[in-house]
Amino acid sequence: MVGKILSSRKTAFRSFEVGFFFVSWNVAVSNRIRSMAVQSIPQLTLRSLLDHSAETFAGRPAVGWVDEPPVTYREYREQVDTLSRFLQDRGIGTGDRVAIIAENSPHWGMAYFAVACMGAIVVPILPEFHVSEIHHILRHSGARIIFVSERYYYKVEELDLESFASVILLDNLSIINPKTSKATLRQLIADGSRELRRIRNVALRFVGLMASAVSPDDTAAIIYTSGTTGHSKGVMLTHRNLATNAIAGALVQPIDEHDRMLSVLPLAHVYECTLGLLLPILQGASVSYLRKPPTAPVLLPALESVRPTLMLTVPLIIEKIYKARILPEIRKHAVVRMLYRIPLVRQRIHRMAGQKLMQTFGGQLKFFGVGGSALSAEVERFLRDARFPYAIGYGLTETSPLAAGSNPQTTRYRAIGPVVDGVQIRIGEADAATGIGEVQIRGNGVMKGYYRDPERTAEVFTPDGWLKTGDLGRMDEDGNLYITGRLKNMILGPSGENIYPEAVESVIDRSDIVLESLVYEEEGALVARIHLDYEKLDEEFAAEGLSEVKAEERITALLEDIRRKVNEQVSAFSRLARVIEQTEPFEKTPTQKIKRYLYT
Fold first, then answer.
1. What is the pLDDT of residue 404?
2. pTM of structure
3. The CATH homologous superfamily of the domain defined by 2-20+293-444+460-487
4. Does residue 189 register a pLDDT over 70?
């Protein structure tokens, strides 16, 4: 039995009161925005998207490093076109695959557009993948050219590089020749090389050929996912998938050429690529990149310099800030700890902490997008009380990715939000009592299928063409989607009850001393693996002068205390039989979901 279908055209734009805000969304205005965006890129291709922005925002800053001069939209398109022509001269044509293995940078997006705009297919590879997995993806995709950064060159150097048409160092666009020295493409351009002058001279003609050659339903990217199952799949996304998803994102959170985004998530993940690159490029915003990984010493001055209005994150980032920075400040004074128990006082304390948090992020943040996995209830409550401009999004790589979401003015506690434009969601085989069932999706963003894997493609679609997400969820009467867990993770209780381990984990994670947890079934009983905040414990144990034996006894007692408190807060059939200390952090996917199959 299939539940109610949720379509954004009917339910996405409503007027309702949420927390401190009363929001009235003008449907006519949103439709005008959509109409203007579609008319601007009538072919719904990445070529049209780039052309629209280069002509509309020509002199505006497009992308750049933090604290360095940015590239304008006009310059960005020129560089993309020159690189496209270079790729064509290396024998790359329509449908050929070109891989990118690198950290975020302005050149990353340039390479991405250069490949897609000429009708070839981008294969973005998460550089955190194991060497063997990267080699498998390169073989499976049949990539003919590799863009690789110096930082991750070691992950491909053992391959037979002569079998590729070119290997290009993304840092400075150097051509890596295993037999000879490097010839720097950037330097050749600066020197006015005859060959590259010829490429420039034919660029306008070549752009016209590319624009006419690329169709909205052509594959633009193949994105290999490494999910919680451990099996890599190549998701084929078309130009239409990606372009319409960027437009849908602009309807959820309108942005313009005055907005600034700081990119901290990997561009090789479709979440950051679509919403953190294609969307701001479509709307004329600027994107800044970090030259080093986003650790606190790097990120804090960057936030102060860029003063971003937009950011995309995963829950782990804001949850760590809350547990490591905010809670300790709130609880270090006895009087504050006592007053914190009073709801109205707690809200006021959260509001004050939120003001400081806003300043930490540069003071001008208007959209703090959270996606990739579930945000903890405790942290979301803090963000709401603090009036911090967070918003939740939901989707999969297979949906390009955004399927449902809200903006900071329309968030509803624990909800994802309404379905985005051009997408429909239904709840398959919904439970009569709870309304919970599998979330199934169809619409503009849904993938073409898995590359060279028709069997898996057939398995993931229903007979009537809906994508089976494997996520469990429900819809409320206002058309908001709620995600309750993963279908494959659900545990059947002793009397047939449905147990959602994610719900039990959220209770465990409320403890100040817990960093993360994993709940699963073992021999008919519920077990939890718990990774504690060992840095905090080491400080406490050192202050008390505890011996190693006493410290181990204290940890055992702490784990048992957590088990007891959790069991007081969950249903009888969801109680934990035992807990296990997880001394090392759990291995995770790029969106920071625990790889459950490694532990259960």
1. 98
2. 0.84
3. ANL, N-terminal domain (3.40.50.12780)
4. no
